[in-house]
């Protein structure tokens, strides 16, 4: 069934190589000539036709390419004596996909799979076709069949992820999640877990069912060592604790992450959110999904008393000062941004001082005002200021541009940054650059 040694799609590889070389070098007319020569010797070869279709598609001749592809497909279906290999199918799949006919590619793989139901290469090709068509149920079915044949962990994970996608993209599905969990438990009992991806998928499955305690037990047990980087393991542990409602323990874990990785801005936001018990990005709820990137949002009014709020922000400030003391170079921006965020939280709580927020922004400008990312870093903080304070901030930034002795490149970067902040503020004040 499969290609023999030295053959490509049933054709000697030395006859096919010039076509691929011409395609790779974008010499499509030359490639088409080679295809014509090849077809004169192998007129009934689906692979030769697939190559011609590929070249025609690259030349922009879509209709002709589609017609040739259909001829190759018909040859596969009608001549049982022909070899069917993954190389021929994958070439046809490329053409059909580029012509927006994924269903045709899928039907080719389904036909080949029906003839050779135990061939893993064909099954993986068919699985990929289902992935491209978002056929989650069929993905699951073919992945489980591959797992039964090869008993490989990756195929089981493909099946579990397909089940998770079914649940995410439709209402209900609790029984499906239980099925996926049962499959993983059975696999662990017979084969254990061997890859970090397997642990992460299992944890995400438990999270999807709000089984945060079970996920924590799994992560802190013998399988936790699969995630070899301590920081990654701690991040996951902190997330599970926060989503389970144990904010104090989560804050402690996130603090450890910051001590190990002081430039982790997202982790600091989680840490501060857990301290103030308002980390909505990690809390329980149907609309919260930890797979999406964290967005900095205006926090709701804290339910903490003023005393508790002040005490916890004081703890956060102490940690930030420690991180600043230990920072070895100016590439670590998170602690400086953290000071600004703490002042922002105070203002939102009604206990802050806008002048301190402006001063924190100016100090951040002293260090990082020349960077292209400065404006996007501070935009959320600038918006919280009233117009007078925004103008005051602009004036101070312009003064900094004139007073900081630096090299011409940094000076230019600082002036560009001030111009960006002017756009954010909406006050287009003429800025002279000397």
UniProtKB/TrEMBL annotation:
It comes from the Eukaryota. Pfam families: NatB_MDM20, TPR_16. The keyword Glycosyltransferase does not apply. GO terms for cellular component: NatB complex. PROSITE patterns: TPR. Keywords: TPR repeat. TPR repeats lie at residues 231-264. Belongs to the MDM20/NAA25 family. This is Uncharacterized protein.
């Amino acid at each position: 069934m499969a290609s023999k040694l030295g053959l490509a799609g049933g054709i000697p590889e030395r006859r096919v190589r010039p076509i691929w070389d011409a395609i790779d070098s974008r010499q499509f007319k030359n490639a088409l000539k080679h295809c014509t020569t090849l077809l004169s010797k192998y007129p009934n070869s689906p692979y030769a036709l697939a190559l011609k279709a590929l070249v025609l598609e690259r030349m922009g001749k879509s209709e002709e390419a589609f017609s040739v592809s259909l001829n190759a497909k018909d040859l596969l279906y009608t001549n049982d004596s022909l070899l069917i290999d993954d190389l021929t199918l994958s070439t046809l799949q490329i053409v059909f996909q580029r012509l927006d006919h994924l269903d045709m590619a899928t039907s080719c793989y389904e036909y080949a799979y029906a003839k050779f139901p135990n061939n893993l290469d064909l099954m993986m090709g068919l699985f990929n076709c289902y992935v491209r068509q978002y056929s989650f149920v069929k993905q699951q079915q073919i992945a489980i069949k591959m797992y039964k044949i090869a008993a490989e962990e990756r195929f089981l994970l493909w099946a579990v992820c397909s089940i998770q996608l079914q649940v995410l993209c439709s209402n209900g599905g609790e029984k499906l999640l239980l099925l996926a969990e049962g499959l993983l438990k059975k696999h662990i009992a017979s084969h254990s877990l061997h890859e970090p991806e397997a642990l992460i998928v299992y944890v995400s499955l438990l999270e999807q069912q709000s089984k945060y305690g079970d996920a924590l037990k799994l992560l802190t047990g013998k399988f936790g060592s699969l995630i070899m980087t301590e920081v990654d393991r701690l991040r996951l542990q902190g997330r599970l604790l926060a989503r389970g409602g144990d904010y104090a323990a989560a804050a402690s874990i996130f603090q450890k992450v910051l001590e190990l990785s002081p430039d982790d801005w997202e982790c600091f936001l989680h840490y501060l959110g857990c301290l103030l018990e308002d980390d909505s990005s990690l809390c329980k709820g149907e609309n919260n999904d930890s797979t999406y990137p964290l967005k900095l949002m205006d926090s709701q009014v804290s339910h903490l008393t003023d005393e508790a709020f002040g005490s916890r922000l004081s703890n956060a400030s102490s940690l930030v000062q420690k991180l600043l003391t230990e920072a070895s170079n100016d590439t670590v921006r998170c602690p400086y941004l953290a000071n600004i965020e703490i002042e922002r939280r105070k203002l939102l709580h009604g206990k802050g001082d806008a002048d301190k927020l402006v001063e924190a922004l100016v100090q951040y400008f002293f260090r990082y005002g020349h960077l292209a990312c400065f404006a996007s870093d501070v935009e959320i903080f600038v918006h919280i200021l009233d117009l007078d304070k925004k103008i005051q901030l602009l004036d101070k930034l312009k003064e900094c541009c004139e007073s900081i002795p630096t090299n011409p490149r940094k000076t230019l970067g600082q002036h560009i940054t001030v111009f960006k902040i002017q756009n954010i503020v909406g006050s287009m004040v003429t800025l002279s650059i000397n």
